[in-house]
Amino acid sequence: MTSLFDSYRLGNLTLPNRIVMAPMTRARASDDGMPGASAGTYYAQRATAGLIVSEGIQPSLIGQSNPNTPGLHTDEQVAAWRPVTAAVHTNGGRIFAQLMHGGRVGHPDVAGQHPVAPSAIALEAPLFTGPRGRRPAPVPRALSTAEVRGEVQVFADAARRAVDAGFDGVELHGANGYLINQFLSSNTNQRTDAYGGSVTGRIRFAVEAAEAAADAIGADRVGIRLSPGGHVWDIAEDDVPEHYTALVEALAPLGLAYLHVLVTTEEDTLIALRKAWPGAYIINPGGQIAPKEGDQDQGEHWLTQGADLISYGRAYIANPDLVERFRTGLPLETADPDTWYQGGGATGYTTHASYQH
């Protein structure tokens, strides 16, 4: 029977185990999107994961969602990431950059840019903007058809920069209510051109973004994350099984490195997507933010259902040695939520230690 501790071949990488560190916003970058030395320490501490997927990184300035998140759209940001990826590799790890375009989940007080989206439909929830606190979300500007094609290329450009920065690959963030998910979803995409309307139209942006990134750096270096039926940031989706089956079938011929899916819908649907996907299938058993993060038993269950790799988010915050704790049955620590997003601080970021026997 497949174990979390078995090795796995992912593209040109050999993963020593099947445990993936999921992407998590930690908000420790500088105001101009530069990761600091502490980011290298943070990720290197967790390099025993089979694969690390970084926090969401904005592929363009207009794509920035949260304050103090890092970018990959300037030469200076690329240079700042190189010591981080080098630290992971020196510690024997592998790391993909998650490319996260916020779309309508953005505010001019954060990025200095007015957010864009498939349609001019604002979030009902307020957005955290930094020193000014929570403010109402603005109505985003709807992208023209030509501009949509430009946003597709943003992902390709950021993928090239990621490889230049030393990342082993990239993950496109198509989940949790951000730009790709906004195109997929029936309530945030009211377009009548080729990028809206039918299921075929609504999946087009995701497929084209994945294709562009794959053309830029090679398909075996590109993954995509999805949250079928998820509701983060006011998302609503109709006909989830039909919609996501069509998306997975359209993505399959590209030969991507992996499909990374959150448990945000019925298990039968996720198993059907596994059967429709020919490549590596990553499951995040914790789903959306909930009172309890995914655990080892859930991960082992999903391996029996056909998943190849299991990703864990919050469990990795307080347990940099999560693989060893799972392997030996050691107790897990719980992180203080007040330190999840502490801008720039070390507390709750690099201060969690491996288990002391």
Give structural notes.
Pfam families: Oxidored_FMN (PF00724). Residues 4-333 form the NADH:flavin oxidoreductase/NADH oxidase N-terminal domain. By secondary structure, the protein is of the alpha/beta class. It has one domain: Aldolase class I (TIM Barrel). It is 32% helix and 15% strand. It contains 11 helices and 14 strands. It has helices at 37-45, 75-90, 108-111, 145-164, 179-184, 199-217, 240-251, 267-276, 296-304, 315-318, 322-328; strands at 8-10, 13-15, 19-21, 51-57, 95-99, 116-117, 127-128, 134-135, 141-142, 169-174, 222-226, 258-262, 280-284, 309-312. It has an 8-stranded parallel beta barrel, surrounded by 4 helices. Strands 1-2 form a two-stranded antiparallel sheet. Strands 6-9 form a two-stranded parallel ribbon. A hairpin with a 2-residue loop joins strand 1 (8-10) and strand 2 (13-15). Helix 6 (199-217) runs parallel beside helix 7 (240-251). It is globular. The model has no long low-confidence stretch (mean pLDDT 94).
Assign the CATH architecture: Alpha-Beta Barrel
Determine the mean pLDDT.
94
CATH topology: TIM Barrel
Q: What is the CA-based Rg, rounded?
A: 19 Å
Please provide the count of β strands.
Answer: 14
- Provide the number of structural domains: 1
Helix proportion range: 25-40%
Low-confidence stretches: none
Spatial strand arrangement across the major sheet: 3-4-5-10-11-12-13-14
The CATH class name reads: Alpha Beta
* Largest beta-sheet details: 8 strands, parallel, barrel
Order of helices and strands: EEEHEHEHEEEEHEHHEHEHEHEHH
Number of helices: 11
Distance between the termini: 30 Å
Structural class: alpha/beta
Strand content: 15-25%
CATH H-level homologous superfamily name: Aldolase class I
Outline: globular
